[in-house]
């Protein structure tokens, strides 16, 4: 899988999907609080597996697609910040 350059937070994409629907109505239909959905839409919270399944059922998307989008976003962010000093681990017998 190729890494996307600066992928959007899934909340940005979801905001487009929900255009014309209020946060209150969408949250009620998803069975989550308005605050929980608002946090996702504003990029303050990520898509959990549970939220992914709710979105898949409500929007007719494939289960796992929203969660995969979150994983791509998280990985891109982590790679930008990663500064750990890591050495290779080698296996085998020593004489």
UniProtKB/TrEMBL annotation:
Pfam families: HTH_31 (PF13560)
Superkingdom per UniProt: Bacteria
InterPro entries membership: Cro/C1-type_HTH, Lambda_DNA-bd_dom_sf, Toxin_antidote_HigA
HTH cro/C1-type domain ranges (all copies): 20-66
Residues in coiled coil: none
Keyword DNA-binding among record annotations: yes
Keywords of this entry: DNA-binding
A molecular function (GO) term: DNA binding
Nucleotidyltransferase recorded as keyword: no
Protein name: XRE family plasmid maintenance system antidote protein
Organism of origin: Mizugakiibacter sediminis
